[in-house]
Amino acid sequence: MSEDLFELGGRKFNSRLLSGTGKFADDSIIPAVCEASGSEIITVALRRVDLESKTDNVINFIPKHMQLLPNTSGARTADEAVRIARLARAMGCGDWIKIEVISDNKYLLPDGYETAKATEILAKEGFIVLPYVNADLYIARSLVDAGAAAVMPLGSPIGTNRGLQTREMVRILIEEISLPIIVDAGIGRPSEACEAMEMGADACLVNTAIATACDPVTMAKAFGRAVKAGREAYLSGPGAKHRQAMASSPLTGFLSED
Amino acid sequence: MSFYPICAEYGALPLAEKFAAVTEDDVRRAINGTTASPEDFMAMLSPAAVPFLEEMAQKANKLTEQYFGKTIQMFTPLYLSNYCTNRCIYCGFNTTNNIKRDHLEPEQVEEEAKAIAATGMKQLLILTGDARTKASPEYLESCTKILSKYFPSISIEIYAMEVEEYAALVKVGVDGMTMFQETYNEELYPTLHPAGPKKDFHFRLNAPERACKAGMRVVNIGALLGLDDWRKDSLLTGIHAAYLQKKYPNVDIAVSLPRMRPHAGSFQPASIATDRDMVQNMLALRLFLPRVGITVSTRESPEFREQILPLGVTKMSAGVSTEVGGHSQKGEKVGQFDISDGRSAAELCADLKKHGYQPVFKDWQCLDEHYGEPI
Predict the structure, then answer these.
(1) A63-89 residues labelled b (16+ CB within 10 A) or e (exposed)
(2) Is this complex scored with an ipTM above 0.85?
């Protein structure tokens, strides 16, 4: 199989697993998690970044080779998300931004309309915008028009570890949207990440499932392998599904064309 | 509609009898459901749930880690003024108590801010007694402007205000509001609050909702356990939190679980919430409202605070002084209540890390363009 690199925002990556920095008992575990997973893109909530703190600044724990992806966690409107993105850039966190606009604190479902508005503003300002949204075709199309670099549909609500509940909708996005589709939120098991990749998703973002595992480093390794396995399965072209059994030694094989 | 009709409806029920009538099967159903109804919450608070505390604890632990991770938000209170016009019979600030009254001037506020900021704290809770002449809304606005130079997140725990007054504070940088109803028992309430503005049960009950309407990001409520039967007040606190969560999905609703502590007055609690009661209360609340923030203050001992860490706690105070000016000046002052956990921020952090939890100092930074540097 030829080299299969993941292109995003003008960069090429070996890994298709994006990781997160939230919910760890200790940020010092982050380098080991990144190494085990092979992940090269990592998201961090800007609201938690404290540049004044010499010891507790989460950015200090992110390996230097990784692409930093600040997120707008905490934003409840497009306006707030835009301000957080600009702050991230002013702080030296680069031009990549994951847009999260959430004003429903019970299910943490993203607001598609506000997300599209923020995406449009920030893309025009030169940001590489990765918006987190519901798995919805119309929202995805509006994000394409708004200049997003990828579309990040949820598998199930954030932090639930409930897996790929939006399977059919994600499949439609994969089929219809030309941008990379990165399944974000809800993936709880490596097998679910593998399934998303087998379906043709371009990448997966996993945080809670790794951070809340009893052994986060080993779970990170498992996710890294699962994403890779799913991608290879997708590229290798899985055999077709049939309703009835298809014998591998057919009974009518003796019949010739003529 | 406000929360009052719901509160009144529950208040009219024979709650003690209803708690006593809960069966073990009711409790099992409540614990094992995917979501919990108010009836399930009542079952988990009932005496019948006591044998199931370990089962509840296991589920509460999983839910808390799922939604909040192994992190604890850190904050510290700053008392700006202890002048008070209320006569709450259980409170050290009661206007009839003979204590030294104090009030911070702007330069003293800055001194306190510097002293607290030096400990690494980023989230501040400012408190006052209920005396508008000494701690007016304008005074609070000017203090917030000073404090916002040092703290990205500022909450208030002050007297009940109107929506417009809360909105004015939001505009200058206040992002959180705490309001303890003390007790949801409307009949008992006037006995405990014989005089002063706090006597108005309705005005206080609806204050958290006014804060939600005014644009506060975090609204924290609670009952002072011990004023009435803890089960009744805990039930109404949870129902109140659920009401606010449903009606204001854009606001983070949190609950505090304070127990009566020794103070300068002579009031003795009507009932004592034991450690087991506190644990049951927290577990039932976590299973009823998986995403609600739960604050445990320094009223509790270091040992107890550490033991209940895995059960649902999301926010803890440290480096606490309940005296006005207590962070930068040490003197013979009297606080609002006696604290049990005198650990500094650094000491609590070290202990949290020892138990596998990450202390989180900064969790939000208000970027409102109405104040500070525009971005």
Answers:
(1) eeebbbbbbbbbbbebbbbbbbbbbbb
(2) no
